[in-house]
């Protein structure tokens, strides 16, 4: 028996490419929660053909973002602030994508990173975020007690704002958020989860 891997059939490759083009158009119009039946219909194939190539919605999103993620990882961010802005912009590519990515980013890639392109890419984003957070702490631009999770939350919030209200407001949020994470900027926060109280002015 031959052990040579069977090449994908040309019609299968065409269908896969058509599905990704269709998914891009449908998600751009209706967000990542759009009907997969609409994607299949736009591609001119049966819904079963879509599921043959992409068993889950995650697989569609992961394949659709593969090239964008490759480009994202090829960038050399100029520090943490630049990376936060870059990821926030990327996560606003489609409506709903920020929410889609948020859980994987928070989990460092999710439980299925080995066999899931989307989860694997989120794991790479999380690793780069960890490294840039460590560098920012070492450079004195990020307080030592700011957890990585706070930075990821800022990314996700900025992506949502960019998606809903545009890049200007998102950039303002990032600027204000990172300013609040600098050493000394959070001394008023007790850190115990309680609502902080305003400091009384010195007399």
Automatic annotation (TrEMBL):
Residues 35-54 bind DNA. GO terms for molecular function: DNA-binding transcription factor activity; transcription cis-regulatory region binding. It holds the Pfam family TetR_C_43. The keyword Cytoplasm does not apply. Keywords: DNA-binding, Transcription, Transcription regulation. Transmembrane segments: none annotated. InterPro entries: Homeodomain-like_sf, HTH-type_TetR-like_transc_reg, HTH_TetR, Tet_transcr_reg_TetR-rel_C_sf, TetR_SbtR-like_C. Residues 183-203 are annotated as: Disordered. Residues 13-72 form the HTH tetR-type domain. This is TetR family transcriptional regulator. It comes from Pseudonocardia endophytica.
